[in-house]
Amino acid sequence: MSDTTNSGPMLAADGTPLKRSLARALRRQKIRALALIAPLLIFVLVTFIAPIADMLFRSVENQIVSETLPETVEALADWDSDSGEIPPDKVFEALYIDLVIAEAEKKHTRLGTRLNYEKTGVSSLFRKSGRRVGRFDTDEYTDALTEQNPDLGAPATWAAMMEDSSVRSSLPLTTRTWDRWAAYLISDGENPAEEKLEDVLFAALYFDLRDGASPSDPRLSSLDVSNIEPVDLPASFADADKDWLDPSVWKTIQVYSPNYTSGYFLNAVDMQKGPDGAEARPENQQIYIMLFQRTLFMSLVITVSCIALGYPVAWLLANLPARTANMLMILVLLPFWTSLLVRTSAWKVMLQQQGVINDTLVWLGLVADDSRLVMINNQFGTIVAMTHILLPFMILPLYSVMQTIPETYLRAAKSLGATNWTAFWRVYFPQSVPGIGAGSILVFILSIGYYITPEIVGGTTGTFISNRIAYHISSSLNWGLAAALGSILLAVVLLLYWCYDRIVGIDNVKLGG
Amino acid sequence: MAKTSNSDAFVEFERVQKSYDGENLVVKDLNLIMPKGEFLTMLGPSGSGKTTCLMMLAGFETATHGDIRLDGTSINNIPPHKRGIGMVFQNYALFPHMTVAENLAFPLEVRKMGKSEREAKVKRALDMVQMGAFGGRRPAQLSGGQQQRIALARALVFEAELVLMDEPLGALDKQLREHMQFEIKRIADNLGITVVYVTHDQTEALTMSDRVAVFDDGRIQQLAPPDQLYEEPENSFVAQFIGENNTLEGVIKGINNGVAVVELDDGELIDCKPINVSKAGERTRVSIRPERVEYNKSRLQEGAHTLKAEVLEFIYMGDIFRTRLRVAGNDEFIIKTRNAPDQERLQPGQQIEIGWMPEDCRALDAT
């Protein structure tokens, strides 16, 4: 101790500062500890954290629009969606180029599905237009241009021409279109220099020349587009599907053209993107807020039911002689060894209108045969079945906490003059609160994300948000919305956890010991 | 409610029996009368029934048979919280979720006492155990000795006339334990409360008590003040259990005029004081306290009985010498002598002669 009065750092026996040699000794320990948990850490990262992160990322990811329709997105940027008019011809030209390539790549239906989440009908619009876009009258451009320079009809000419940087810089649209086309062919295992030239390339070339491009390349400089009759693309699209004349379709494309979107999240809270930012959805389309509220409410009811039913059992377990308690414990654990599906289905058998409970009530004369109770495929059924299934998760932490509360506390309270109830309420109960906390967190978080039981016994009024998420994952394939709903659910759980930590204190949660 | 005839009795056990399993009696026929203000210790090995007696008195166990009376009133059917008996538990049982002051206020609160009165009493009780500054702490922030004081204060704060203590000092280290023994005794005397104290530590029992009840096998083996218990044990269990004790086995040859002649197993004849032996031919266990044996001839008194002995071990213990001898075939014969300037220090292997007064040598039962 007297050494500390010396100025300067403490030195270890070998003369290095004590702090440094301590840090070195500790570092070795830390590395060893890290090495021990590394396999699990990597496993968790790869199989758990990474997929979840990827899934959550989908809730904001929206590259499909700008990747599939790059020209359209750019051309549409200046269009005023409030004008009530369809976009100018240039946009249709861009859409034509994008759609031809997307159709070749078979990506237009995926885009249609994506945009259909935001506006119904877009999916069929894209499917139909994709089928028709190849038959548009744009072959007129091909014919006119190859007539002026027959060399242009040879794929090899194009391939060579597009190597030339002066050509590339003078014909930007043609270059971009050729690159996308060539990339598609190469990915398909073909050689762009040999494949048949598509009309879209000539259309792009025509658009470039019409807009005043003047390539110096001799193969192109002689071309004159002034007397080529332009194809009426808006009319062609309208002919394929008259929805293209509906400005709201274009508005949807414009609104969802950025790479990242808050649209899924807005959708998940019953809102949508409007011209002035977020706005509420029409009332008949609102569902998720209600589902979230229902999920939280029912989880709360389930948690409270579990406390009410589990507390006395845990108390018995903790206070009975060891042998009886072990027997009871097996009964508590028994459901764990039975399949979840079996237990849920058992409730279906018990609670249905022709089920055991209704039969018994009718037989006892408590319920008339024609007014049997509806106890399944509604909230009641879900609450009953889930309380039963989650009860062990309440009893076990409660039990392990109660086990650590010695009986002498109750005795002491009684010897000090407290009645049985006061002794319990003032002395025993406060000490069991950490167990209630642990059990409640466990049950609440488990039930908030429960899927299988509400799916089986929930009917329409007893389903949870998780059922909707599952629907979007496996049926509607709207993974972005599913991811947004999942993210919100995760955020709600974390928020509740944080609140709990602030109010009760997370170090007050005990699973035993 | 049966009123007892014994007006002087405060706590009374009458023919109390207790069985947990219906086959074995843990407490067999317990009779005990305590006057008000007495400090009585129940001492005994574990499983002797002493804690069960305490729990019956507190009301946490019901007597299988018999009557327990408090201040003349049978309390068999009164629940613990109405008995008004203070209790200090083995591990203090301070409520961990309450502060020290809240712990102390608890018994007052359940008695619906007003806030100001409550606070005054809590303060007085804390001052009494010199813990006045600790009211705001949690029990977990206190040391063992401090928790002990708080537990004591809590048992006293509602002014119980009878306080039960169940091995309250068991968890403390030796020095603190000795200090607390005096403290508890002092407080009990000051307040004039009646205390029933359970322990298996005989030193504790001897230092603190007005009377000690030695328990074994569900019975009180002897109920006596400490000095009497130590010096005049009534049977060989009490002689063995209280203090250090030398025993020599033998057979009674005859009893005359309050003197029993005992033939030890090696043929030696000695005179003893007969305690619970009655007739010749009976086997007996002769008990002599180590400090009543003398080997320095000059200190031997007239009429002392002498025997040959061989020194096996000599231990210097500071204030005393402790010597192990072989006497009459017993290798565990211990003598303790005071470290006086003229006291001879013995060597192992030395042949000596030891002696004691016949009245210090008690012939007890051989069981």
The CATH topology name of the largest domain in chain B reads: Rossmann fold
Supply Rg of chain B.
Answer: 25 Å
The major beta sheet of chain A can be summarized as:
2 strands, antiparallel
Radius of gyration of chain A, in angstroms, nearest whole number: 35 Å
CATH C-level class of the largest domain in chain B is Alpha Beta
CATH superfamily of the largest domain in chain A: MetI-like
Portion in strands of chain A? under 5%
The count of domains of chain A is: 4
Main pleated-sheet profile of chain B:
6 strands, mixed
Q: Determine the mean pLDDT of chain B.
A: 89
Compute the number of strand runs of chain A: 2
- The count of strands of chain B amounts to 19
What attributes characterize this protein structure?
heterodimer, A: 513 residues, mainly alpha, 4 domains, two-stranded antiparallel ribbon, 25 helices, 2% strand, disordered N terminus, B: 367 residues, alpha+beta, Rossmann fold, OB fold (Dihydrolipoamide Acetyltransferase, E2P), 2 domains, six-stranded mixed beta sheet, five-stranded mixed beta barrel, 8 helices, 19 strands, 23% helix, globular
List the helices and strands and how they pair.
The complex is a heterodimer of chains A (513) and B (367).
Chain A: H1 18-57, H2 63-68, H3 70-76, H4 89-104, H5 108-116, H6 122-133, H7 139-148, H8 155-161, H9 165-170, H10 172-187, H11 199-210, H12 218-221, H13 233-240, H14 247-255, H15 263-268, E1 271-274, E2 277-280, H16 288-319, H17 322-333, H18 340-351, H19 356-364, H20 379-403, H21 407-415, H22 420-448, H23 452-457, H24 465-474, H25 479-503
Antiparallel strand pairs in A: 1-2
Helix pairs in contact in A: 3-4, 4-6, 4-11, 5-6, 7-11, 10-11, 16-17, 16-20, 16-22, 18-20, 20-22, 21-22, 24-25
Chain B: E1 9-19, E2 25-35, E3 39-43, H1 50-58, E4 65-70, E5 73-74, E6 85-88, H2 100-109, H3 115-128, H4 144-156, E7 162-166, H5 174-191, E8 194-199, H6 202-208, E9 211-216, E10 219-224, H7 226-231, H8 236-241, E11 246-256, E12 259-264, E13 269-274, E14 283-288, E15 305-316, E16 320-327, E17 330-338, E18 351-356, E19 362-365
Parallel strand pairs in B: 3-8, 3-9, 6-7, 7-8, 13-19
Antiparallel strand pairs in B: 1-2, 1-4, 4-5, 9-10, 11-12, 11-14, 12-13, 14-19, 15-16, 15-18, 16-17
Helix pairs in contact in B: 2-3, 2-4, 3-4
